[in-house]
Amino acid sequence: MKKPCVFISYCWTSPTHEEWVINLAERLTNDGVYVRFDKWDLKEGQDKHFFMESMVTSSDVDKVLLILDEKYTEKANQRKGGVGTETQIISSEIYDNASQEKFIPIATEKDGNSNPFLPTFLKNRIYIDFSETSSFEDSYEKLIRNLYKRPAHTRPQIGKAPEYLFNESLNTFKTTQMVRNFDSDTTKSPQKVNSIIVEFLDNFFEELANHQTVIPDDVSSIDMGRIIHENIIAYAPLRDNYITFTDKLLRSDLPFDVHIYIRFFEKLPLLLNPLDNVGVWKTDQFDNFKFITHEIFLYTIATGLKYEKYHFIEELLYSSYFFQRKYDNMDKPERFNSLYNYVDIINHYYNYTFSKNLICPMAEIILERIHKGYTKDNLIDSDLLCHYVATLEELRWFPITYIYKQKRHIELFKRLVSKRHFESVKCLFGVNTKEELSSKLISLKNRTSDSERIGFRSASESVLPLYKLIDIGSVGSVR
Question: Which pTM was predicted?
Answer without folding.
Answer: 0.67
